[in-house]
User: Fold this.
Amino acid sequence: MTVETVSYSQVFRNLQAAVRGGINHKTNHIAAHPPKNEVWVPGGNLDIIARQMLNDLGYRARLAKFDLTKPHYWQNVPWSHGNIHPRNLLASFAAFSDDPGTYVDEKYFPSDIAQCLVQNICDNADRMGRPLTLNEQFVLALEKIGPYPTACAIALHAGIRGIGRNMDSRMGIKSGPDKMQKLALSLADVTDTGDQIGDTYHVWGVVASVLTGNSYMNGRRLNLDAYLLLHSGRFAEPIAVVRKKVFGTETAHDHRLANALGQSIASKIWNEFH
Assistant:
């Protein structure tokens, strides 16, 4: 396989293989012991953060007269036609846009909306004199996008990842050292690793993945695409394994705790409405 011929389907096949064959003892431990409700993260108590997200989401859904028990609001993004495709979402999150031969899909990387969200996060952090917690970031996404929970997480992931990596040039998101530093100071640390940007976009990536996975698994037979999304936060970096196998590169940091936090938050959001 050459890098130039890498496609969504190839990335996904390698992701499936990574999940099936790359789960180690630490991964099994995380899967068996996900974060509990009372877990305290630097950005606040996990249960309180999730409850505040739910309150804001429910309030805006009532104003918009959205019935969040229906799959439509979990499987669509307002800026693009057609449903979120589980396999393409997985592959988009696994492949960085600077990887040669990969396609950047606006559905999963809405550059204009994402950049606006990042700017709003930085502006609000300046105004409040402190970094924004996960629930405060989610509120800004709700204000910009509306009560589409999966879409909000996708946009937050895209903006924070695009600025933070400063390599995803084909996403159309302009970054640089100053923007990276500004964003890092505007995000509450969720794991105490010191990598606020990386941990935060991993949280939102897993939230988007788990919400999508749930919406496609709900009341249906086993769907492997949806299953991988549904459990994306409990595997020890399957994306890192994919990147090593497909692109010959490695992720810089271990984001297992951030992934597990995203898994817990998404599960709470989904369970509230189903």
About this structure: Residues 10 and 164 are 26 Å apart (CA to CA). Residues 196-217 form the longest helix (22 residues). The longest strand covers residues 40-41.
